[in-house]
Design a protein that fits this description.
- The protein is an alpha+beta fold.
- The chain folds into two domains: 167 residues, no CATH class; 146 residues, Reverse transcriptase/Diguanylate cyclase domain (Alpha-Beta Plaits).
- It is 60% helix and 14% strand.
- The chain contains eleven helices and seven strands.
- The protein has a five-stranded mixed sheet, with helices on both faces.
- Strand 6, helix 11 and strand 7 form a beta-alpha-beta unit.
- The longest helix has 50 residues.
């Protein structure tokens, strides 16, 4: 997880827009500094400090960059409006509008000092033509730059959303981990509809690891995860809580309804596993603790009751299901 966070911090450097109005150099250095602190030796206090800085600094800097885009676009339209006002004047008499567009333009300043009015008008008209071309090119470039900046900001926001989403999942199985499950369970317990929880534990998993090796043990874990995912609806939550423990949350279902949907996927059976040119037959067996949500009950209490039922199932015998 630290490596992922460190990679994210380094990746964010590519989304920082170098602008004259923002101290982007300091921000990038701060990004690099905090990324460098995310090592396996990092202490809780330093980790909390880095997290707090990221939570505060990243959204704030994104807002500043969006504000910069808006300010540049406003300035572009101000110049275009000034030019439109200028070209509507007869014979270039509204010199103040022209000066607003190009105050530092030497050719325009020299034009208004000529004694020959016709020559002055010709030079002003030429200068207005040049200015029109300049503004048209600038408008086109600013629109393209604005589009690129907006795209970069959108990509950065999407990257952050993706990383935040990935952080809730177990790397081995693709299931939610414990924290991700808790963050989503509250939404399942907000009305009076039923909700059932299955707490699942692999039987004899330590023996499988000790006798057949960890690669086989890992395949048994992923097999169990695949079986639970196949039985899940889009509204169900499936999580690996750690080690060989899993959880299946079914909003809108009673415990018996979940048994009809999931029970067949987790029945006791021998499975054939191919790992590194090695074929093994393993007895797949799980014990299950089931709890039905009581309206008003917290997610923590519901899972605790399911866990207690699982312990009772383990004491009763392997491959059994017990209700809280």
């Amino acid at each position: 997880m630290l490596a992922l966070a460190q990679e994210l911090y380094y990746t964010l450097e590519h989304f920082v827009l170098s602008t004259p109005d923002l101290d982007t150099g300091s921000f990038v250095r701060r990004l690099q500094e905090h990324a460098g602190r995310l090592t396996p030796e990092v202490g809780p206090a330093t980790l909390a400090e880095v997290r707090q800085w990221g939570a505060n600094a990243l959204p704030a800097f994104a807002r500043l960059q969006r504000a910069y885009i808006g300010e540049r676009e406003t300035e572009m339209w101000r110049l275009l409006d000034a030019y439109t006002s200028a070209v509507r004047q007869q014979e270039g008499r509204d010199l103040s509008a022209l000066h607003e567009i190009r105050e530092s333009h030497s050719r325009l300043r020299s034009a208004v000092t000529l004694e020959d009015i016709r020559a002055a008008r010709e030079q002003i008209e030429e200068e207005m033509r040049r200015t029109r071309e300049l503004l048209e090119r600038k408008a086109r470039e600013d629109r393209e730059r604005t589009a690129r900046l907006q795209q970069q900001v959108a990509q950065l926001q999407e990257t952050l959303r993706t990383v935040r989403g990935q952080a809730d999942f177990d790397a081995m199985t693709g299931l939610l981990h414990r924290g991700g499950l808790f963050r989503r369970m509250t939404d399942c317990l907000t009305d009076e509809r039923p909700c059932a929880v299955w707490f699942v534990d692999l039987d004899d998993f330590k023996t499988i690891n000790d006798t057949l090796g960890h690669p086989i043990g890992d395949r048994v874990i992923t097999y169990c995860a695949e079986q639970m995912k196949r039985a899940a609806r889009s509204t169900d939550l499936v999580a690996r809580l750690g080690g060989d423990e899993f959880c299946f949350v079914a909003p809108g279902n009673t415990a018996d309804q979940v048994l009809q949907r999931v029970g067949g996927a987790l029945t006791r059976r021998h499975i054939r596993l191919d790992v590194a040119d090695r074929v093994c037959s393993v007895l797949f067996s799980v014990s299950v603790g089931v709890a039905q949500w009581i309206p008003g009950e917290t997610a923590e209490s519901l899972l605790a009751r399911a866990d207690a039922a699982l312990l009772e199932a383990k004491r009763t015998g392997k491959g059994t299901i017990r209700k809280a």
